[in-house]
């Protein structure tokens, strides 16, 4: 979508990069934005190193303060805001007094095991245009906003062009990320942030399950987000990587092309990330969804749910492995998502 906006001569595009994009600890993905040909970028730094509850709340406040300064000196016809991160919520809330017109992508979704649920709905209420991934979520946005106007069920933007995406060859992909030969599970675990008191136990259960699975599979792990007590999971993953270097591969940030390639070549997906629920079905993969972080999010028939404990994880992984390739539909997929969003916002701009 950003590439289409950049190439449209009737639109001036600026990217505001903040949150983990400037964090070396989280992959320094501002470099990926620049490598994709974007140069009109403003950066705002407000992420703290610590990830306890006070640090997350402080980072939220700092982001709000910095965006208050930013919005006071910058004007836009429309500002896109994606998803449900606490940093995104802070940026949007700071824009409310300035009358910033926001367009929210992926609103209306429900994740009862993550505080992102609150942030997502805050962003929805503050936004004027809404681009949802399913009809169910469009109805939720209508419920939250009290109107059915300017709500567009376009499908998941992350799946745009998925049917003709050029993936990295398996040989090149494995070589780049030092993934040994053999079947591998693609795993992503984030903290459960609604009740963070259980995360020490959950991180250890994750480690026990991954250790057991590594006896049969290579485990390729993408690292956690900058969430409350995410360092607990990072610590366990680092210990696994150091103890079982031949079986555990940890990657800070794949980038979209490499992540989709990782998904395509994986035997199955494991963890509690939204990507498993939203995207994996389009690659014919079964997903073992662990715990409550994604509870309430609409699921295709490729998702198998289990409790956050070693035995439940192992039992469900072996069940998913026996099922082979998923041949059903992906409820989040629609054609031409980016095209439709750009068309809608250009039509909207003409009415201003």
TrEMBL record:
Top enzyme class: hydrolase
Xref: PANTHER family: UDP-N-ACETYLGLUCOSAMINE 2-EPIMERASE (PTHR43174:SF3)
Location of the UDP-N-acetylglucosamine 2-epimerase domain: 3-346
Domain of life, per UniProt, equals Bacteria
User: EC no.?
Assistant: 3.2.1.183
Q: Which UniProt keywords apply?
A: Glycosidase, Hydrolase
Q: What is this protein called?
A: UDP-N-acetylglucosamine 2-epimerase
Origin species, per record, is Fodinibius salicampi
| Cited NCBIfam families | NeuC_NnaA
Q: State the encoding gene.
A: neuC
**What Gene Ontology molecular function terms does this protein carry?**
hydrolase activity, acting on glycosyl bonds
The protein's matches in Gene3D superfamilies, at most eight in alphabetical order, are given as: Glycogen Phosphorylase B
Query: InterPro entries per the record?
Result: UDP-GlcNAc_Epase (IPR020004), UDP_GlcNAc_Epimerase_2_dom (IPR003331), WecB-like (IPR029767)
